[in-house]
Amino acid sequence: MLQCIQTFYLRALKYLAHAGIHPHSPESSRMRTTPFVLVSTLFVSCTHALVSPPNGHEARAAARVYTTCTQPKTLAITFDDGPNTYTKTIVDTLDKAGGKATFFFNGKNYNCIYDTTNADRAKYAFDRGHQVASHTWAHLHLPTLSDAQIKSEFQRTNDAIKKITGAVPAFVRPPFGEHNTNVQNIAGSFGQSLVTWDLDSQDWNGASVTQIEATYKSRIDSNPNGILTLNHEVYAGSAQQVLPWVINYAKTKGYKLVTVAECVGAQPYLSKGSPSSRDSSWVC
User: Fold this and answer.
1) Where do the NodB homology domain residues begin and end (predicted)?
2) The one catalytic residue among 22, 48, 80, 135
3) Which domain holds residue 26?
4) Quick one: 115 and 90 in the same domain?
5) In angstroms, rounded to a whole number, what is the distance separating the alpha carbons of residues 158 and 161?
6) pLDDT (tens digit, 9 = 90+) per residue, 213-222?
7) Is 80 a catalytic residue?
């Protein structure tokens, strides 16, 4: 910053010299407005250059990382890795119970989000008031990627969700829960927050329905202020057996079944508009 200002100061002196005016002469005093305006303009330019980030992203703070619910007696049931076979089952089950889930969708992990069936599943959840969020494009280990690759993982998923639903998600769950300062900074440049969890169902690790229910029961019985969960919609047991049990048990303990945005008191989307018509760009 100092070097930048010094450069612009020297330019102002050159301006005076070119005009034949010594900087401390009476003429300089009478004409001080002109060089002052010049220096002021250059200073503003320097400051703008200093704070403006590359690649067209607005300068923002590093992304906030949510690990638990902050609103009292809330349970955020979340499902990763969709849209998939059980998306609509999950939506319908929660709707009947008066609750909502959050879906962290990939672009291309188990399948392609743009496939007609999957796009319909994503929009089905969104249209019924469930939260749709990003799980990045290809479920890669973000801290191992270059900046350009991380940005692509974010941007491609945002674009897909926006085309399908009309909304740009405000939340991203990094695959495997992995993130570092660089990932946070890039997420922040998109205006998005990161979300992990404080209850891992372990369905991804082969836990049985009985084991998962025991995990939930133990946590709910400890009566925490809020619970932010990790489940995967690709497993039948999680969608068809565990979910109904958790809904019933949590409600008997006074928990509200809410979205991640509701459980942390934030907005679910950066923007909302109309979905796009399917065209040749809807490919993975």
Assistant:
1) 73-258
2) 80
3) 2-52
4) yes
5) 5
6) 999 999 999 9
7) yes
